Amino acid sequence: MKIGIDKIGFYAPHLYVDMNKLAVSRNVEPEKYTIGIGQEKMALAPITQDSVTMAANAALKILDEEDKKAIDFVIFGTESGIDNSKSAGVYVHDLLGLNPYARSIEVKQACYGATAGIQMAKGHIALNPKSKVLVLGSDIARYGLNTSGEATQGAGAVAMLISADPKIMTLEENSAFLTEDIMDFWRPIHADKAFVDGKFSNEQYIAFFNKVWNQYKAKSGLELSDFEAICYHLPYTKMGFKALKTVLDEGTDEDRERLLANYKISTQYNRNVGNIYTGSLYLSLLSLLELNENLQAGSRIGLFSYGSGAVGEFFSGKLEENYREHLHVVEHEQLFSSRIEITVAEYEEIFQETLPVDSSTMELDLEKDPATICLAGITDNKRQYVNKVFGKVPVMK
After folding, report:
1. 269-284 burial, b for 16+ CB within 10 Å, e for fewer?
2. CB atoms within 10 A of CB 382
3. Which residues participate directly in catalysis (predicted)?
4. Is 112 annotated as a binding residue?
């Protein structure tokens, strides 16, 4: 039985900062951001968007009523959870109006969470072939104003429908994975911003890639020449390039040319959104599928997932016939074209807007947020969400 990605979509907030202008305001050469780390724009989540709303908005555009009835498992990968007890998946399940007879959970392992969700989904569908699983990767990357990690922030979500007989990509059986207890990136319970040892994290990312790549080759018997492209988790777009370079000598000149060209295409969405943690790898995949119109059915795509702390995995998928017919290219073009650039001063002001941490009530102005699903406020320590299509408006106390 073939199991894989039947549908895929993404959402990014409607606000962004130009990285050239951010660099100038930080007294940094713009090329350090645009070339050195490979970022052009940074998506910024207003206070009316969080990991729940972004995931729900990403899924909203790809699911039809048949999907909503068939989904019996929601797996939400995030490191930007809003509750230490209740899963973000439960909120999304309600906001989308899914089949009530379903499991809904949240998975955490840094940027690896959505990949864990996909592997769990494969096992569930193998036992329940008629089921469909909604896998979500949604995060807001926050390091703080004027910090070393500021240029690698971002916000967004990717939603994937995993099913039998998928329309876009069949996930292959072979997979290689690795866990090591390291402190390259972490965020303690008390902190609202991450801590990172940047140099060490870069080194571990590459080391993990090489270890799981070699394990994958031993398991599968495949080589570099068997791949049309390799997509990477992208905390910033230059990171995957550093890893890819370490294996290019294994292929021919033709292999190197093909993989480098497709890598560049796979980074275009990420360059204009920024780091979205659990969704970054799958935004890279989406960029490749939607922007390269020459990929053929049967092409094998490699996928490298890395979550600091750390867990890494390399796996692969093969494109299905007519897969492009099931992508949402026009909707994603419209999402990008409708975004609004804000000044650095506006970015700094929005970045510092936060929800109350006591029992205060806060009602938010939704008029400035064009998204269908928004955070409307907080009351009695409960977040109040709105799906404008459902007309579900909470009563603020």
Report:
1. bbbbbbbbbbbbbbbb
2. 13
3. 79, 111, 233
4. no
pLDDT at residue 4 in the model:
98
3-354: CATH number: 3.40.47.10
Which is catalytic among the residues 14, 124, 233, 332?
A: 233
Residue from 93, 111, 320, 374 carrying the catalytic annotation: 111
Angstrom distance (rounded) from CA 15 to CA 20: 16
The count of other CB atoms within 10 Å of the CB of residue 27 is 6
The annotation status of 275 as a binding-site residue, yes or no, is yes
328 given a catalytic annotation: no
Q: How far apart are CA 173 and CA 262, in angstroms?
A: 23
The pLDDT assigned to 218 comes to 98
Nearest to 139 by CA among 153, 151, 152, 157: 157
- Known binding residue 347? Answer is no
User: pLDDT per residue over 302-343, tens digit each?
Assistant: 999 999 999 999 999 999 999 999 999 999 999 999 999 999
- Active-site residue, 79 included: yes
The half-sphere exposure of 305 on its side-chain side, counting CA atoms within 13 A, is 30
Tens of pLDDT, residues 204-240: 999 999 999 999 999 999 999 999 999 999 999 999 9
In Å, the largest CA–CA distance within the chain is 66
Does residue 55 have a cis bond before it (omega within 30 degrees)?
Answer: no
**Sequence-distant (≥ 6) Cβ neighbours of residue 391 within 8 angstroms:** none
368 touches 46 (CB < 8 A): yes
What are the φ/ψ torsions at residue 54 (nearest 5 degrees)?
A: -65, -40
111 labelled catalytic: yes
Q: Which of 14, 79, 231, 374 is catalytic?
A: 79
Q: To 5 degrees, how large is the angle CA 42–CA 197–CA 240?
A: 55
- The closest of 355, 290, 279, 225 to 115, measured between CA atoms, is 279
State the chain's mean pLDDT as an integer. Answer: 96
pLDDT at 392 over 80: no
The predicted pLDDT at position 348 comes to 98
Domain locations in the chain as residue ranges = 3-354
Q: What is the pTM of this model?
A: 0.97
